[in-house]
Amino acid sequence: MSTYSDLLKTAGVARIITAQLVARFPFGMLSLAFLLHVEQQTGSYGAAGLVLAATSVGQAIAGPLTSRLMGRWGMRPVLTITLAICAAMVSTIALVPMSVPLYMVVGALAGLSMPPIQPAVRTIYPKMVNSRQLTPLFSLDATAQEIIWVVGPVVTTFVATQISTVWGIMLAVIFMVGGGIWFIVLPELGRVRIPRSKRKLGAVLRRPPVLLATGVGFLLVGACAAVEAAVVATFGHGGAEAGIVLAIFSVGSIAGGLGLGHVPIGPWSTARRMLIVFVGMGLAAVVMVLVSSDMVFWWLSAALFVAGIGIAPALAVLFAMVSASVKFSDTAEAYGWVGTGQLIGAALGSAAAGFLIDSNGAVGGFWAAALFALVGFIVPVLAKRYHPDLRGRDASPLPDTEAIPVQPTS
């Protein structure tokens, strides 16, 4: 733990981690908030899944584009414009009753304008700490991200079920605007300028580690989103059980992030962490089939605690492998692709779970989660030779320019 305390004492680190956490907190709320709200408005999880899928299309298009624009226009202008548009679109979904096609259109616009905070902050990190501190910083950031993806839905569940689904979405807007403004005005954004990339859009995906991180991130977050939908379907909208189970899920993830975040990253690191996630989610599906209804709460909580242990450590590995594999001018776009993969995973995981819940009951959502996690384990096993070995290596981005050897004159 001394590693993390030293990190937080480094100038600006605690401030930027907290600000980006608040600004990105809505990203962990909106998939479930949209699912609950549209399902309540239409009476169909399938219709809600279509809205989430439309949102994911917008996110898929916008992620690398807005990230790349930060190298051309600067971080603050891009973040400000996207923040204003996204907040307006998300508020429209909450406040304006619409047909499913209109919900899909507005959802797509919200996805297109998602502020690229994740690529911005992870581009700044290597400029704030030394090489020895960078991997632990990614681990700390991954643990914070678990608060976003797991605690965010817990908050959404409580607000949406105890107050209203409208307030479940509007609370996300409040976090988005308040946290976004806080992040934008931080002095660290003015001290770091992202060089304009000389490569074509998408060229960074030719680097196998970036493609691997994008794919595994998609599958991991898709599994988490499916679990969230399945837990809500299991316990219904009226009680606190769903929120408590998801909170236990988050505790497992935070414990894993803090306990395993300092472990050196080798070629098998991603596969091992995803195996933990799959085992826990597979157990959750088994619990739904074999355990009596009066014991489901306790067994499901235990299974999801196990699954959570692998989540933050897996994310830390993905962030570090991207950082160590690209040039600094390409880091924002690379993290844009990784973030797009995660956001699409969140939306499609919820959508897949929604359709399976409609047809098979709550257990269908856990089937979807286990399948996402299983594929997320298989992919890094098959792609092991493309996985960077960072044991004893610096995880900082590659320099855009290299020293030119000069022959001394006699």
From TrEMBL:
The chain crosses the membrane at residues 21-38, 44-66, 78-96, 166-189, 210-236, 242-263, 275-291, 297-322, 334-357, 363-383. One of its GO terms (cellular component) is plasma membrane. It comes from the Bacteria. InterPro entries: MFS, MFS_dom, MFS_trans_sf. It is a multi-pass membrane protein. Its main location: membrane. It is found in: Cell membrane. Keywords: Membrane, Transmembrane, Transmembrane helix. Residues 12-388 form the Major facilitator superfamily (MFS) profile domain. GO terms for molecular function: transmembrane transporter activity. This is Predicted arabinose efflux permease, MFS family. It comes from Microterricola viridarii.
